[in-house]
Predict the structure.
Amino acid sequence: DQQEIKSAESLLLDLEVIRSATNNFSDANKLGEGGFGPVYRGTLEDGEQIAVKRLSRTSVQGLVELKNEVVLLAKLQHRNLVRLLGCCLQEEEKLLVYEYLPNTSLDKVLFADPVRRVQLDRARRYKIIEGIGRGLLYLHEDSRLKIVHRDLKASNILLGGDMNPKISDFGLAKLFDVDETQRNTSRIAGTYGYMAPEYALRGRFSTNSDVYSYGVLILEILTGRKNSGYQGSGNSIDLLGYVSIDVWRHWNQGDAMQVVDQSVVDRCQPQEVLRCMHIGLLCVQEDPAQRPSMASITLMLNSYSVGLP
Ligand code: ACK
């Protein structure tokens, strides 16, 4: 209807405006290389800061479909999703414009060298885990799109001014799906180490495969250690370089606490840390059907985060 058409048009940004906001995509304005092309920082005339993704992959979709998809994505608004503000889609230049987040991504915060690493206490780590969970739940269940992210990982989690986590790059995997000739072999969207085995091996993605990636994230956030990747057949959990759920069940609390980051270990409530770790391990089970849904994960997390500082 008229309203829809109007709101779709308001998303379309003028290429010249974005050029001048980013200093004509100057190197000085380049934030880095993202999964779909370089990302630039920009400042609009009114002073608003933006992040511009310059898409370098060719989409399998035509411009009209691409626009429709972007209109749908821009409707998704949630505290834990990076907000899509608009786009500029032309044959020769395809740009997505997002809100700018000043605090870099979770992987830099977690895994940068010790000097630059931001100290995250237990409460902060929980809040990050919970926030990502809420964003993912929204993508899976609340939206009209039922989006499977397909590439959830620490570098796709950006941190807001208050260290509130926001999921980035959601919905993009679908735009850039494998081309016809590669449908069975290429898994372009996923990232080694975060991909569920059924996705990595057979290209089967689902909300359950996102849950697996979320589990890897929980383990990374609690242990402060990057996953060591998927190295072959067998128990997928051992392969991540953490500990398998079976081993975990037989550990006593003291053993178990040794795998978590020292900043998470304080005098109060080791039980909580262990329960959170346990949720992470449930998510990375080999069998997708055994993994909990995001709805039950957020219930589990809520049930014990009450009363956190
Ligand atoms: O870890 P970073 O500083 O955060 O470096 C990467 C780089 O661009 C390539 O993805 C940064 N980036 C992506 N989107 C945004 C955004 N909306 N706001 C700020 N930085 C962003 C990302």
Notes: The first helix runs from residue 2 to 11. The two ends are 47 Å apart (CA to CA). Residues 31-34, 39, 51, 82, 98-101, 104-105, 108, 158, 168 surround 2',3'- cyclic AMP (CB under 6 Å).
